[in-house]
Design the sequence.
DNA sequence: AAGTGGTCTAGACCACCAC
DNA sequence: TGGTGGTCTAGACCACTTT
């Protein structure tokens, strides 16, 4: 037995998917089918299907079956110079640029005043105990959660401004920061990818997540906002312009 | 039984790891240990350990045990304006900027002339049948593969230049392109994350990979190079500057 | 030689979903 | 209600690593 049975079964299914035998949304042969076809025990058939779900090619639905995963067109998130400025400078939310044709909605929104995590407090130059304005929200596309985000701003800086409301007004947070004389002139984004922790999975995101920390900086080098984002990796393509 | 046994066992181990009971590189209780401690069957203990390995918290070594994964300091890959220009403008490889103290070596290098994949050919404005110069290489840090990359350049453009050699000389490919009068002035990078396919796993990369496509563009808007990179997600942090 | 994880079998009960 | 995947048991053999 050169390669394990379950891997051979998985490979056969994978090839069938790639060949189009099973299209997106189609039901794959279930555990019982595989047991019969390949003369194999329950756990072995399960293991084969487990390979496909781990690869993100299939997803199982309790009581229904295992289905080929439908990959919707990924969202193109352009983190590009002109775009950002133009967009929030002219009334739209920065985030509407993330998106190109489907319905994006916001969910689980909250604003509160609370201490920021130590690393964030450091970036924002908050003294220990200084509170931050914390804005949390989750974004859905077609009813499916694709991103959750938390932003931190110095509470003293934004007190009394629309930033402490759910609706920050035309142009969003960045436009309001500009109104306050703290317009960000550039942002630094750090990007990592990881498997979703159980916590993130509770948020309803996929198995692989992209973690972005966006740090917004003013002309005087002041950090006025830190945003931590968790994206469903399968739902997004990030685009960056790199001048040379 | 509110939550499954294997999840409770996995949670206990996870907490023990976070609490420092088991440090990086330490051996976790094995299948036999868990069977005894939790009065559970083999497959259940396995399943619990499987959760941790799937999360990337642990890794199993055949015949030896399951160990807490040692996460080396991630490589900071700065895809930033000044850096890129400065670096290759002054003799160093662009990629040496990826890296900040450990030994990075190249592996499995090859240069060849071959047709580019259709999407790449389109970006490079290659007529069907026009060959591309294909440069493949894999990067190791401390002996561990962390990235593999393939670059495509129009063969007609680079014929006879050092770009067709392994050693492209001071400043690397971009400096040679500049010598040829095709200096790239900016690049567009698209970033995705995914679980590693069996192919990529054969390359020796981790379970989660980051896929970057870098398109290098000249002042006359000509695409002179397309590079596809596969990074071990755990080994990298990407940094981008976004002017606003 | 002893112990480890990797694979595999042949059963079982359950919650859930579709019909 | 019958079929599905999710969980679980109690065994087994193997290749591999460590001692």
Sequence:
């Amino acid at each position: 037995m050169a390669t394990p049975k379950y891997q051979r079964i998985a490979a056969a299914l994978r090839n069938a998917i790639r060949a189009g035998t099973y299209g997106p949304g189609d039901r794959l042969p279930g555990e019982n089918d595989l047991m019969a076809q390949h003369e194999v025990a329950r756990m072995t058939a399960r293991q084969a299907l487990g390979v496909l779900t781990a690869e993100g090619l299939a997803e199982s639905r309790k009581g229904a079956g295992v289905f080929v995963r439908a990959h919707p067109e990924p969202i193109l998130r352009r983190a590009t110079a002109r775009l950002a400025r133009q967009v929030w400078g002219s009334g739209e939310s920065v985030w509407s640029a993330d998106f190109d044709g489907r319905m994006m909605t916001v969910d689980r929104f909250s604003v509160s005043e609370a201490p920021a995590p130590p690393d964030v407090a450091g970036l924002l130059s908050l003294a220990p105990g200084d509170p931050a304005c914390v804005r949390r929200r989750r974004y859905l596309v077609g009813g499916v959660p694709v991103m959750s985000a938390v932003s931190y701003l110095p509470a003293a800086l934004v007190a009394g401004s629309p930033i402490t409301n759910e609706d920050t007004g035309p142009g969003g947070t960045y436009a309001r920061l500009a109104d306050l004389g703290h317009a960000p002139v550039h942002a630094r984004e750090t990007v990592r990818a990881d498997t979703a922790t159980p916590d993130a999975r509770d948020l309803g995101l996929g198995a692989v997540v992209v973690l972005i920390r966006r740090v917004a900086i003013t002309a005087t080098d002041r950090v006025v906002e830190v945003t931590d984002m968790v994206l469903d990796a399968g739902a997004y393509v990030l685009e960056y312009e790199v001048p040379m």
